[in-house]
Amino acid sequence: MVKESTVDVILHPVRMRIIQSLINQQMTAQQMKVLLPDIPQASLYRHIKKLVEAGVIHIIDEIPNRGTIEKIYSLQDPAKASIHQEKLNSFSKDEHMDLFFKFMANIMGEYERYLNQEKIDLASDGVSFRQTSVFLDDNEFVKFIKEISEVYARVTQNKPKKGRRRRTLATIIIPEQKQEDQ
To answer: For this UniProt entry, which residues form the secretion signal (predicted)?
Structure first.
C-alpha cells in the first residue's frame, strides 16, 4: 500500500473540515460529530485516525467515559495543516491544478452545505463572493498582504462561544501574466 503524502492527507475534503473544526479549540470525536453531522461516524473516525497518523492533529488527552476512553484532539501546530512554500514551489503545473481543484471543491462543498439548510438569508448571514482586479506595484502589494494578514491573524484567534458562528473565508490571488516590458 502506498503511503499518502501529507499534502494528500490534508487536502481530502472531510479531513480539511476536521482540521478547520480544530482551529483554536480542542475537541473529542463526538464533539466533531455534532459539528459535522453530515459525515458518517465510521468515516469521521477513519479520517481522524489518518490525520493523527500523519501528525497533522494530536491526541492531547484521554478521558475515561462510561467504560471507554474518550480522546481529545488538537491542532497543536497549524503549520502541519498547511503546505509550506518550499513544497508548493516544487509542484508541477498538474499538481498545482490538482491542489487548486481540491481547494475549490472544498469551498463548493462549504457553500453547498450552507445552501442545503432549510432556511437561509444570504444578506443577514453575511454570504458574499466577489471578484475584482486591483493594480498594485510590488511595494503596494506587500503592504496590502501585510494588512490582510494582520486582520486574518486577529480574527482567527477568536475562540468559539455563544453568538459566534464559524464563517469560511477564502482568498485567491492570481497575478496577470507578466508582460515583456514588466
So the answer is: none
**Residue of 100, 91, 85, 95 whose CA lies nearest to 174:** 100
| CA–CA gap between residue 131 and residue 178 (Å, rounded) | 20
The CATH class for the domain spanning 6-79 reads mainly alpha
Q: Rounded to whole angstroms, how far apart are CA atoms 108 and 106?
A: 5
Nearest C-alpha neighbor of 49 from the set 23, 65, 29: 29
Q: What is the CA radius of gyration of the chain?
A: 19
Domain definitions of the chain by residue range:
6-79
pLDDT of residue 7 exceeding 70, the answer is yes
CB count within 10 Å of CB 81 equals 22
Measured distance CA(176)–CA(133) in Å, rounded: 10
pTM over 0.90: no
